[in-house]
Amino acid sequence: MSQEVKDKGPQEVVHTIELGSLGGSSSSVSLQPLSQTPSEAPPPPPPHTVLTERKKIMTIAIAAIVGFLAPVSANIYYPAIDQLSDDLHVSVSKINLTITTYMIFQGVAPLVTGSISDVYGRRPTMLVCLITYLAVNIGLALQDNYIALIVLRTFQSCGSSAISVVGMAVTADVVTRAERGKYMIYSSLGITMGPALGPIIGGVLAQFLDWQSIFWFLAIFAAAMIVLILVCFPETCRMVVGNGSIPAPRWNRPLIPIVEPSAYEGAEAAKKELEDGPKPRRPSPIDSIKIALEKETGAIIAFCSILYCGYFAVLSSLSSELGEKYNYNSLQIGLCYIPYGIGSLTSRWTVGRFVDWNFRRVGRQHGLEVANNRQMDLLEFPLEKARLQITLPMVYLSCICIIGYGWVMNYRTHVAGPLVMLFFTAHTISGATSILVTLLIDCHVKRAATVTASNTMFRCFLGAGAVAAAVPIIDAIGMGWMGTLIAVLWAVGSILLWGVLLWGHDYRKKLAGRV
């Protein structure tokens, strides 16, 4: 909806941003001066997506469930480490090595699949990765030696991590920036809940069945996801279907039609928009590395990696800390991850809505009117301010929570103490990381999977080091000082975010001018 400013002299320039609404189909936000008379006003741009609100939520939900596979696969056999060590006749340290190698390759695979999905589509990329993942899990359930375990875990990591990156990009395809904060929390639920629910599921299966049942569970889950995608998951990649009004190739359509036939009436206009826009580049693993070399993007990815180091250090050490200090068995340890999962889940209702509210507030401060169903050019919008004004307080709250968690665990208080602090730590970390991922995608909306792959690569590489170092550091200085050390690293690292807040917008405009 636009405004006309009437005056005797030259008309005042008014900016309009139109965003996706909760009740209708989501679209993007356009930012343009209004100096025309009503008769000269251009026709409104097409909606950001032709999917209805219900179908949009369904699509994001499927992507989030599929994204659950990567983190749950990494952590599901934490409670079964002792069983694996006994059955395969190797040390616990060697079993832990499979976790480290998993995380390393978890960062490598998306370098390829991220850029491929940005050009050729989300749906075929997800299906190929899921079929590979299914076959590998069957192999893991049937193997009985350490070499096979570590090799197959590597392939399992490649398949699952590629899926999660593509799933995050689906949200960028169908949701506008103005409401992306709310939906990114939904789309990242699988990634944030996986580390918490994985040990619970693994603990139950290992306690009542055996470690092989863990991989059979993952294989069955993957098969169900393949069926779900084949039946009702539409292609969303904007390089392939635009806003959904361009029909996907027949082989790339779900068995149940998701897009209404009437939506294809705008296919010609959407095709012309794609043809007039920048041409997709040939997919390359180097794309994810190049994108991290941009100053603003690199700073955000660097801090995300620092944040995830502490996140992985806490989760990977929780099992041993509970076993040592409280003498818990594998099932009890698994259940203690529930507060982390709930904390991650509840961040959607607090952080997600604050992010979208602040986006609109910053828009009003800069003379930008918020309306529905359009995507905007963010070149003149202080996007960094809108996102990081919420992120930075969450980071500092995370520092306080991780210190509290470390010291209550260190002094062996009642188990309720560490679990309560674990809840708040999860709530704040999940909120901060979700906003940062949202900001990355906002800045690279046409290469959402590529920038997500870049972020995944660096956080997994550093996270693998954090997992390997966590237990030795705790043994040397104790859990209390470990939590304090993590908080100091986060606080110092937040300088990167302050740099993005102060200079990121100017750099983004200069970069756009060069391009």
UniProtKB/TrEMBL annotation:
Positions of transmembrane segments: 57-78, 90-112, 124-142, 148-171, 183-208, 214-233, 299-319, 331-351, 390-408, 420-445, 457-474, 480-504
Cellular localization per UniProt: Membrane
Chief place where the protein resides: membrane
GO function terms (MF aspect): transmembrane transporter activity
Annotated region described as Disordered, given as residue ranges: 20-48
Topological category with respect to the lipid bilayer: Multi-pass membrane protein
Domain Major facilitator superfamily (MFS) profile: 59-511
Keyword RNA-binding: no
Gene Ontology CC annotation, any one: plasma membrane
Domain of life of the organism encoding this protein: Eukaryota
Keywords from the named record: Membrane, Transmembrane, Transmembrane helix, Transport
Compositional bias of kind Low complexity: 24-39
Protein name, as recorded: MFS transporter
Organism (species): Aspergillus eucalypticola (strain CBS 122712 / IBT 29274)
